[in-house]
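User: Can you fold this complex?
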Amino acid sequence: EAQVTQNPRYLITVTGKKLTVTCSQNMNHEYMSWYRQDPGLGLRQIYYSMNVEVTDKGDVPEGYKVSRKEKRNFPLILESPSPNQTSLYFCASKLAGGVNEQFFGPGTRLTVL
Amino acid sequence: AQKITQTQPGMFVQEKEAVTLDCTYDTSDPSYGLFWYKQPSSGEMIFLIYQGSYDQQNATEGRYSLNFQKARKSANLVISASQLGDSAMYFCAMGTGNQFYFGTGTSLTVIP
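Assistant: Here's the predicted assembly.
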């Protein structure tokens, strides 16, 4: 089944404790992206990657890191999480070339205490 | 600046009636795509419909149609014959270049 998976689905952590949210897709998509969703703000793009070893900032990259060492994986790293990073996070992927549909993962609900 | 605006925080519609969800966008790029996603209470993002900036005809997908008015920079979603399962949050989004921008969403409630 074609899908984007995220782990963990739920995470409660404390300020300053480094964490990684994994994202993997099995559709051989070149493009992958991370979003955060906050009430009243919709989804905002954090980082995106056009292909392996190619990443770029979205609208809200501060406090986040990403890496793209393999085509299928695009982990999101919070090196020193803060309470304002409490949010619902989505990973998405799509084929490169043109503006086309993104496929979203199920979301990761993160709470930073 | 790239921007998507959804001015209706909440909407109600009677079952079997049609409803229009508004979306306006702002971009100076000639090439862009417009999307609508549905987010039910379970949280997943479900793709509904896509319209390219160069498409001459309005996109349709089953009960969903996108009313694309390029000069007005609007991309309204029309849902015909509403069903109880249509109750959800709806997001308008624009893709341009390598980035995507989402609106703040409209919460739709279908009344039996």
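Chain A touches chain B at residues 31, 33, 35, 40-45, 48, 50, 56, 58-59, 88, 90, 92, 98-104, 106-107 (CB under 8 Å). The CA atoms of residues 21 and 107 of chain A lie 10 Å apart.
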